[in-house]
Specification:
alpha/beta; seven-stranded mixed sheet; globular; binds flavin-adenine dinucleotide
């Protein structure tokens, strides 16, 4: 009996949409199912009162994002549509902001670090760069750092005022448990923070272009996926459908729930929650100098991990003369705050942000609270240990895509996973006997 569908992709985030694009290019017929009422997943943008608000991801790298740039070129987007942010990042230390974080100039001017910490950083980055080929973002399990955690690799000042604020604030990681190897591979690939770019028309630009290419059903949650003798069966809302191939392009913990027979690696991938409050302001605010973003170390403030002044990313993001600030919750409080009301979350983060962005409460016109129970993947030693087996497995009727595929906390990993899954399916006939 022939299957109802050729390929069913579960999840219309950037990984699922990019996988659909790659598989269609191979001649497959693809239908994407999305549980939410909109596409984009963690790369969604909201447009309200003239403000353009990125609810999840905020930027991409000029370098270190090769799969993303291949897709951008495929879609015919121009560089003007992905402008350079230009401004840098700052870190808060003892009452003031220090500029040039994550930038070579920071090594000279300090960027909030002591001379000893800067020397330690220069040695670490130099040593990593010399062994660049061993730090391949596609193979996070094979770096020279093995299973050492971030907190085991960097200490004191360097940990407290650079690695913890960057990984805690931007990825939600716990440095005592996150592996250092994948982080160093990512840092080496991406380079200086001043080279970051953003999509002029919102971080959902690529997702919108991809969704327009083929069949995407929104508001349709998939409840279960099982392999059969000739493919897979999925329960679409409450109706069973069969497909030759299913690509589960959802966060790993969701994939493991939908398909309990998933490989061990899928079960071991851990995600960290993230919580943001986006503040629409009646004027731009100034509190941390020319940087567009401020990282707040947990040793300075465990409640607020960072602030982004979105109107500094490029012109046109907010109506003339107005401002937009995004507040990110600290990892120590995020799990407790997730279940609080929007009002309580906004009140808490705004009260803590006032010292870095004076006048915030006064300038407020509205807030948007964004909760991600599965915010970003965190590479633990336990997950890394199962990855080689995952990569070696034979192609199956149930395949996977998502940023967690290479345990890299960024949209590049999601888009790269789409290329990897398409390559797996192009070189294989879907096996007659179902595997997990
Ligand atoms: C706060 C935050 C900031 C970030 N900042 C950056 C950044 O600046 N730069 C960067 O490169 N990356 C950033 N990222 C990471 C980036 O957003 C993700 O890596 C990327 O969007 C992941 O895409 P994905 O398709 O793998 O997953 P998702 O975007 O999570 O897509 C999965 C989709 O599956 C859907 N789904 C779930 N369950 C089901 C079901 N049962 N049936 C059907 N559909 C289902 C979901 O609704 C979702 O749309 C950030 C992430 C967060 C949370």
């Amino acid at each position: 009996m022939s299957a109802d569908l050729d390929v069913a992709v579960v999840g219309a985030g950037i990984a699922g949409l990019a996988a659909a694009h790659r598989l269609r290019a191979q001649g497959r017929s693809v239908h994407v199912f999305e549980a939410a009422d909109h596409i984009g997943g963690r790369m969604t943008s909201l447009r309200r009162d003239g403000y353009l608000m990125d609810t999840g991801a905020e930027m991409i790298g000029s370098s270190g994002y090769p799969a993303t740039w291949r897709l951008i070129r495929d879609l015919g987007l121009s560089d003007e549509e992905i402008p350079l942010i230009g401004a840098g990042l700052a870190v808060w230390r003892e009452g003031r902001a220090h500029q040039h974080v994550g930038d070579p100039r920071g090594l000279l001017v300090g960027a909030g670090l002591s001379a000893g910490a800067r020397l330690e950083l220069a040695k670490l980055l130099g040593g990593t760069a010399i062994r660049r080929r061993a730090y391949d973002p596609d193979s996070p399990e094979s770096t020279p750092q093995g299973s050492r955690t971030v907190a085991e690799v960097v200490h004191g000042d360097l940990h407290d005022y650079l690695f913890q604020p960057l990984t805690g604030g931007f990825y939600g990681w716990d440095t005592e448990r996150a592996s250092a190897g994948p982080l160093l591979s990512h840092m080496l690939a991406v380079g200086a923070t001043k080279t970051f770019r953003t999509y002029r028309d919102g971080m959902d630009t690529v997702a919108r272009a991809l969704a327009a290419q083929g069949e995407v059903s929104t508001g349709v949650p998939i409840r279960e996926v099982v392999t059969t003798g000739s493919g897979a069966r999925l329960v679409v809302d409450h109706t069973p459908l069969t497909a030759r191939t299913v690509v589960l392009a959802v966060p790993a913990p969701v994939a493991a729930c939908l398909h309990p027979a998933a490989p061990e690696f899928v079960h071991r991938c851990e995600f960290r929650p993230m919580l943001k409050v986006i503040c629409q302001l009646d004027r731009p605010l100034d509190g941390f100098g020319p940087a567009f973003g401020l990282a707040v170390p947990a040793v300075e403030n465990p409640v607020l991990a960072g602030i982004v002044c979105d109107e500094r990313k490029h012109v046109g993001r907010v109506p003339d003369g107005l401002g937009l600030a995004t507040l990110v919750a600290g990892q120590e409080v995020v799990t407790d705050l997730l279940d609080e009301s929007d009002d309580e979350i906004s009140r808490t983060l705004i009260a803590h942000a006032e010292q870095y962005l004076p006048g915030l409460a006064h300038a407020l016109r509205g807030t948007v609270v964004v909760r991600f129970r599965h915010g970003l993947p965190m590479p633990t030693a336990w997950a890394l240990a199962a990855r080689a087996e995952f990569v070696k497995r034979a192609p199956s009727a149930v395949e996977y895509a998502g940023d967690w595929y290479t345990l890299r906390p960024c949209s590049e990993a999601a888009i790269r996973s789409a290329e990897l899954v398409a390559a797996r399916l192009s070189t294989s006939e879907i096996p007659a006997g179902a595997r997990g």
